[in-house]
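Ligand-bound model needed. shikimate-3-phosphate.
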Amino acid sequence: MTPLSSGTAAALNGRLRAPGDKSVSHRALILAALAVGRTRVTGLLEGEDVMRTAAAMGALGAAIRRSDDGAWLIDGVGIGGLAEAEDVLDLGNSGTGARLLMGVVASHGITTFFTGDASLRRRPMARVAEPLQRLGARIIARDGGRLPLAVIGAASPLPITYRLPVPSAQVKSAVLLAGLNAPGETIVIEPQPTRDHSERMLRHFGAALAIDDGPNGRRIALKGQPELKAADLAVPGDPSSAAFPAIAALLVPGSEVVIEGVGVNPLRTGLLDTLTEMGAELSLLQERIEGGEPVADLRLRSSALRGVAVPAERAPRMIDEYPVLAVAAAFAKGRTVMHGLGELRVKESDRLSAIAQGLTACGVSVAVEGDTLAVDGLGAPPAGGAEIAAKLDHRIAMAFLVLGLAARRPVRIDDGATIATSFPGFVEAMNGLGATIAPAP
Ligand code: S3P
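Prediction:
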């Protein structure tokens, strides 16, 4: 355990670069490993989750290494070319790594064993196992479809058409990745669009995809068995990581912060829309395209926020940002009501409960009714002064450290080690802006 505490900060000022996008980094390693030739990836997130995926792809036969200049070089084996891993693949804390890789190996004639940490072993995998079984894979899992589990890949996988029962980019991506080694067309229909990094990157490596929006949702058709060709790429900064310094800058009086190179893919910008509605002084500078993804520098100044209603339809575009949005809502004037948060219950922790418990302990009045969370903002700093259990959840840890920077009394979290899964160097980056986050006794 690595306890940390954050106390009231003077103004936050300066510039920082957001760490590489976690979703894009996993996909870059996986698709480059399935391409023919050498791909050079710059800006890869070197967080624990992504390093687990790198190790797993290595165990399945790809050659992956970091070069002296910090770029990552991946020598792919080609679709269908993965070899059986000699040992269990341990994906640590990473739901994305586990689910995407289950898709990849489901259409290879190999058997793969998966496990993870206590958080990942609690998370539902049946949502991925179900479509992969239709494609021909056999999956043997613990009760409730949980890890550890084995995927016995299909030697002759079938293309499937699958309508997502939950809005999940991970499930969509698992099916598309499995479809890469199936003949014919693999089709995923998503009632609500989710992040499209897999689709963008599949095209980047040369796969053919047809994407159509219809009355029943978005239809994504992948032409199976393409030859993916190595193609260098630059990973944008992660908007989900940028959210922590961004909201800290809004909450700590007298702050002005610029976060450079943040991905602003429209399927990831629900938080920016919400903060703008709350009255945040926020602007996007130097909008540009990097590595096939829209990117901008974000400038934030401390702002008096007001409570708003956040519609359920927006949830897939900001699913990882609710813990820190709820912290912003605690400082805003009036009630913020966030609808459609059912998926938060199956993240690295039950985030709906973790947010409610943590805010309550910090003196904020909250209500959870079904999938809706209401936070009664004080229009002033909340008391803070609590000890928060991080529950192996990096975003809960960072969200409450941000709260402590602007609350009346310091906040302590029981374990900050989990932050390295998505934002290595978080404490140093925040303290570089003027924050006061330190090891706690
Ligand atoms: C991710 C999708 C989201 C998100 C996760 C990363 C991805 O999960 O919460 O952090 O990279 O596809 P779901 O697709 O399960 O909602």
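Residues 23, 96, 168-170, 173, 194-195, 319-320, 343 surround shikimate-3-phosphate (CB under 6 Å).
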